[in-house]
Amino acid sequence: MIKLYDYELSGNCYKVRLLLGLLHLTYERVELDFYPGREHKAPWFLAINPLGELPVLEDGIILRDSHAILVYLARKYDATASWYPTDAETLGNITLWLGVAEKLTTTSGAARLHDTMFYDVDIDKCRAGAHQLLRLLDEQLWFAEQEGCDWLCSHNHPTIADIACFPYVMLCEEGGISRLPYPAIRRWCERLKRTAHFTTMPGIFPAS
Amino acid sequence: MRYRRNLANHSDSAGRWFSVARSEEVIARHVVQTQILGQEIAVWRDDAGAVNAWENRCPHRGVRLSIGRNNGTELQCQYHGWRFASGSGQCTFIPAHPSQKPASTIHAATHAVREEHGFVWACLDAPAYPLPELPAGATTLRSIVVEAPHAAVAQALLHGYSFAADPGVADAVTLGAEVVATGPFVFRTAGIGERATTVMFLLQPHTESQTVMHAALFDAAPAHAAASPEPPAPDARAKRMALLRHHNVRMTALRDRLEGSP
After folding, report:
1. Which positions in chain B touch A208 (Cβ < 8 Å)?
2. Who among A146, A180, A208 is closest to B31 (CB)?
3. Predicted local confidence at residue B231, as pLDDT
């Protein structure tokens, strides 16, 4: 069975749980005490992931990095190839937005670690960086809507790019980053929440 | 009452209608979270199409109603599930007391709300002014949020706004238009181009330091009888997108100048 090394409150782990749920996959969770236990830096886990980062997936292979895991799961288990389409334009765009998602982790995600788990980061820089990304995302989604497109990279179905960007957008207010100025993001979040088999996490409510 | 104090500091804003969202963005079964001078508002549309603008606070425990659920006729609080009726804000159901009719004194705080000219408008106190007058046939543009007080945004607008009347055309020329204030929060460009295209800006002060520039474009149809054969009509959709993108770029540039961004 698929095994996920997991932490309930991690947005990056949540990305993987979200896609596992959307693909109706059953899996086993190995929950680590990330905070305050720092179990992800324990020798037994460093043997699995030398970078000491969550999540890690075991499925015959061992794979770290949430975005690598999203690509792997979508390619392997989504027979319709809707979550990770292979045409050149969509692939290019997905890779672009996975990059934005990574930057959301290091800005919005880091601000949340600062506010909830007392990490030492440049909080003003993190928040300013997050707002810059949220502006970009809101603009992208607003014009997509005008073109009759509900998602970041494809017209009628979300992709792993939507999943990758979603958690640290939805959790940004836990890092003191208001989402109030981003109405198009708000509509997009709600569309994703209404997707069949959507999974929640603490701080992310089901669709209204 | 924090917002009343804020409004007292802004005699200009008392009794005014503010555009709070483009109509088409207040979609079914959704709750828009916005604010006027720090007073948060939950804006939502019921399934019959009527729009509500309520104080964004459940009268029970003060939780934001914008994280609640729009069920099409009521807004339900996320916290204890209290439901409030579209229109009156009257509490209709308290899950902890399912057999009791909620007291008539329990209701969400409602604000005066209107829907006209492609926008939803709210007024936080008793409306003392009519809605700003806008010409018919607006194309509402993407609203831009600026990290600047509304007075600074107004000042920047009064320096002029340059845009192209036909941004979809290859040789479109961007021209500077003068801007005049037609109200403390409403600005209008002089017409440019053959059809005297104008843009109206409607400022929504989110807070003391953050302002939304709503905008609508008015482009009168060419008023000439076409004896000569017309050029092939450009794809209306592409033209509309070019228009929306053009003004998004122009308004974003205005924002960046105001915020002192590189």
Report:
1. 29-31, 67-70, 78
2. A208
3. 55
Where helices occur in B125-233 by DSSP H, the ranges are 150-158
Whether B210 and chain A come into contact, CB under 8 Å, resolves to yes
ipTM value of the model?
A: 0.93
Annotation: CATH topology of A88-193:
Glutathione S-transferase Yfyf (Class Pi); Chain A, domain 2 (1.20.1050)
CATH class held by domain A2-77: alpha beta
CA dist list (Å): A195 to A112, A158, B29, B67, B121: 26, 9, 15, 18, 31
Query: Which member of A146, A181, A208 has the closest CB to residue B69?
Result: A208
Please tell me the predicted confidence (pLDDT) of residue B10. Answer: 56
Residue of chain A nearest B38, judged by CA positions:
A180
Contact B67 A208 (CB under 8 A): yes
User: In the structure encoding, which two tokens stand for residue B56, read together?
Assistant: 């964004």
Residues 6+ apart with CB under 8 A from A99: none
Compute the distance between CA of residue A88 and CA of residue B133 in angstroms, rounded to an integer. 49
Q: What is the pLDDT of residue A58?
A: 98
Structure tokens at A75: 């390619």
Q: Find, in chain B, the residue whose alpha carbon is nearest to that of A142.
A: B142
Condensed to tens digits (0 to 9), the pLDDT of residues B21-30 reads 999 999 999 9
Tens of pLDDT, residue by residue over B132-190, are 989 888 999 999 999 999 999 999 999 999 999 989 888 889 999 999 999 999 999 99
* List of chain B residues whose C-beta atoms are within 8 Å of the C-beta of residue A179: 33
**Bridge partners, B177 (sequence order):** B161
Picking from A77, A74, A45, the residue whose alpha carbon sits closest to that of residue A62 is A45
Distance from C-alpha of B252 to C-alpha of B139, rounded to nearest angstrom: 18
Give the mean model confidence (pLDDT) for residues A163-183: 98
What phi and psi, each to the nearest 5 degrees, are found at residue B229? -65, 130
Q: Do A143 and B21 touch (CB under 8 A)?
A: no
H/E element, A117: helix A110-117
In chain A, where the domains are located: 2-77, 88-193
- Tell me the torsion sign for CA atoms A36, A42, A44, A49: positive
**Residue B117 CB-density burial (10 A; 0-12 exposed, 13-18 middle, 19+ buried):** buried
Smallest Cβ distance to B241: which of A146, A179, A181?
A: A146
CA distance A192 to A200: 11
Identity of the amino acid at B203? L
Q: Which residue has the tokens 């106190």?
A: B125
Which residues lie closer than 8 Å to B239 by C-beta, 6 or more apart? B168
- Single-letter residue type at A108: S
Helix (H) or strand (E) run with residue B114 in it: strand B112-116
- Res. B233: pLDDT tops 70: no
